[in-house]
Amino acid sequence: MSAAELARAAALLRDADGLLIGAGAGIGVDSGLPDFRGDHGFWRAYPPLAALGIRFVEIANPRNFDSNPELAWGFYGHRLALYRATVPHAGFAILRDLGARLKHGAFVFTSNVDGQFQRAGFGQDRVVECHGSIHHLQCTRPCSDAIWPADAVDPLIDPATCLMTPPLPRCPHCGALARPNILMFGDGRWVDARSEAQYARLDRWRAQVANLVVIELGAGTDVPSVRRVCEAQGAPLVRINPREPDVRPGRGVGVALGALDALAALRAALG
């Protein structure tokens, strides 16, 4: 980050009364999480699926819970255990502190399903998880709009096959197979009630904020859910992305760094 970019980003934060944090998979890299960038990046994280030639868009698909439930739950069960064991990096605390400086605080909009913002101390009422959460379950049918915590799931995964050992999680209402409450590819059965309630809370918060600033971190262009929301705010944007940091002229600042390095520099500039 150049000194000029750093000064501009710091000035945008000083003038704001609310902070929207937009986060994609790249924010978790500094915590040791894979971002699944491209099939080869995904296959490095899941060698058994690489051996079978199964791509991310194919395993992250609700059809697998019908055709191969042990494999579907092997993939998502492994991720559930991984996210439970991951400690959010120091950049999350920096973001929390930046929000605490502002009159209306911070709100998070993330495409990540890992629950890292909540683990880092952000309130449940200040997070939108637009693709759902791996820490919550729903029925695969679904038999109702019920969503419940995944706390009772203790996944045992065979690392050689990526298969989960039964018994697999079941819906407490009808007994059918349960699945994570995550929006998957080609998913017509996702129960979105929890995420819709989060959107409503974001709308109420946004209506109070007169001078918004947006910090976007690690949000890619392949599935641009986070980028679209951040750009649609009509507010100054600080885009932190080591590969795709460009911001349209006059709309903000692009920072070609990872999340933790950029946030540490920004905190130092603010004092």
For the record, give the distance between the C-alpha atoms at the N and C termini, rounded to a whole number: 17 Å
Largest sheet, in brief, is: 6 strands, parallel
Q: Structural class, judged by helices and strands? A: alpha/beta
The fraction of residues assigned to DSSP E strands is: 15-25%
| Oligomerization status of the protein chains | single chain
**If strands are numbered along the chain, what order do they take across the biggest sheet?**
3-2-1-9-10-11
- The tally of beta strands, per DSSP, is 11
Give the helices and strands as they follow along the chain: HEHHHHHHEHEEEEEEHEHEEH
The Rg value, from CA coordinates, equals 19 Å
Report helical residue fraction. Answer: 25-40%
Averaged pLDDT? 95
Counting H and I runs of at least 4 residues, what is the number of helices? Answer: 11
Approximate shape: globular
Note the main attributes of this structure:
271 residues, alpha/beta, 6-stranded parallel sheet, 11 helices
Describe the structure.
This protein is an alpha/beta fold. Helix content is 37%, strand content 17%. It has helices at 3-14, 38-45, 47-52, 56-59, 64-67, 69-85, 90-100, 116-119, 193-208, 225-231, 259-270, and strands at residues 18-23, 106-110, 127-129, 132-139, 148-149, 157-158, 163-164, 178-182, 212-217, 237-240, 252-255. Strands 3-2-1-9-10-11 form a 6-stranded parallel sheet, with helices on both faces. A 3-stranded antiparallel sheet has the order 5-4-8, covered by helices on one side. A two-stranded antiparallel sheet has the order 6-7. The mean pLDDT is 95.
